[in-house]
Design a protein that fits this description.
By secondary structure, the chain is of the alpha/beta class. The chain has helices at residues 19-27, 47-57, 71-81, 100-105, 147-153, 168-174, 185-194, 216-222, 225-236, 249-263, 269-284, 289-292, 298-358, 360-371, 374-392, and strands at 6-12, 35-41, 61-66, 86-89, 95-96, 115-125, 165-167, 198-210. Helix 9 packs antiparallel against helix 10. The longest helix is centred in the last third of the chain and has 61 residues, at 298-358.
Length: 393
């Protein structure tokens, strides 16, 4: 089997801006592919002209044209045209390192018949090819049998489809991309591949995933939580009810469903309730058993939602009660301080009156001072003083 027996499948729709860099990265591989199969999924820009130009310079480039049916349909058309022993996928806005295919194909040695597909680490670039550092990167970590991990932890195959090389006979065995899916279609295929084979990876970053307004990374961020949930339930339903379905996955997606039901921003309780009810009805009537059986009934669905609401209400009441207690404590302290000051003032007044009662002259003087004009009071006080001095003399 020649080491270059690999076909590259590239789906594209209106990808004229980034397609040349993508194709150049394939043409520049140290291990050239047998064929580059580009499926034009109904492009209306300059994509057909670019493909025609490359086809004149690169005889191994095959062009498949189709109506716009989505990336899963486009990849399946490419697989249908493929004849090589291996298939590598590449999105039209991503680029490969020159040694990518060579490094990955080297892992498919004769003594590893269970190895079904290989991926690699990746990096992120922007529209101009500059590094993007504000989005987390999932490094490859697990080799061998990763079937349970894929079901439990999601798509742990790093680098998206652009990082994967797979044995073509395995695709014939497990089936191609599920055309019902518009999200997670690659994860679904990796699960099926992992159910019958093992995986390996090259730890170096051999793929550059481009992030822009129309890229898969940006689109997934904008998806509604409930839309993502229904796509994931459709993927997992294939394994639900079998002995290979990991414990804990159903409970995990119950919580995801509750989060999705309560995440919709509604200003009023009635709107939130009717919104959650419509979400529950959609779950009960969805086209997969896992979604229908996430909750045993309306009470099973609404109980945790109301429990969270009641707990939040109770926490609010407790906070209000704590605030009232703090206010009462402060008021009581201020009242005590005021009463203490009044008591001290009263004692001072009482002491003053007591002194006046013990000294009648002082009492008389106080009465005259309060009733006479100041000038007359001074005359009276001088008279009393002189009289007192004459008596002592």
């Amino acid at each position: 089997m020649p080491s270059r027996d690999v076909d590259v499948v590239i789906p594209v729709r209106d990808g004229a801006r980034f397609l040349p860099a993508c194709l150049d990265s394939v043409v520049g591989q140290t291990c050239p592919p047998r064929a580059i199969i580009v499926v034009d999924d109904g492009s209306t820009d300059a994509t057909p002209q670019i493909l025609a130009e490359y086809a004149r310079r690169w005889p191994s480039l095959q062009i498949v044209c189709s109506e716009p049916r989505g990336v899963s349909r486009a990849r399946n058309l490419g697989l249908q045209a493929s004849r090589a022993f291996f298939v590598a996928f590449l999105d039209a806005d991503d680029v490969w390192d020159p040694s990518k295919l060579e490094r990955q194909l080297a892992l498919f040695v004769e003594d590893r018949p269970r190895l079904g597909f290989v991926h690699c680490a990746y990096r992120l670039i922007d529209e101009e090819g500059r590094p993007v550092n504000d989005i987390p990167i999932s490094e490859p970590r697990q080799r061998g049998d990763i079937f349970s991990e894929l079901l439990t932890h999601g798509n742990i195959v790093s680098g998206s489809a652009s990082a994967v090389v797979v044995r073509r006979k395995l695709l014939d065995h497990v089936g191609r991309f599920d055309e019902r899916l518009f999200l997670g279609e690659d994860w679904d295929l990796w699960i099926r591949l992992a159910s019958v084979s093992e995986v390996d990876f090259v730890p170096e970053r051999l793929v550059a995933i481009r992030v822009h307004d129309k890229s898969a990374q940006r689109r997934q961020r904008k998806r509604k939580a409930e839309l993502i949930l229904f796509q994931y339930l459709l993927i997992l339903d294939r394994w639900y009810g079998t002995d290979r379905f990991p414990q804990g996955v159903r409970e995990k997606y119950r919580q995801i469903a509750l989060n999705a039901a309560t995440r919709r921003e509604k200003p009023h309780f009635y709107s939130s309730l009717t919104n959650a009810l419509s979400f529950y009805v959609a779950l009960r009537h969805c086209d997969n058993s896992l979604g229908r059986e996430l909750f045993s009934g309306p009470l099973d669905f609404f109980r945790p939602m109301f429990a969270d609401g009641l707990q939040a209400f109770a926490d609010g009441l407790q906070a209000f009660a704590d605030g009232l207690q703090a206010f009462a404590d402060g008021l009581q302290a201020r009242l005590r301080a005021t009463l203490a000051r009044c008591w001290v003032a009263l004692l001072r007044v009482a002491r003053s009156w007591f002194r006046l009662m013990l000294h009648p002259r002082a009492l008389v003087f106080s009465v005259f001072q309060a009733t006479l004009p100041p000038a007359k009071f001074e005359v009276l006080r001088d008279f009393v003083r002189r009289r007192g001095r004459s008596k002592t003399g």
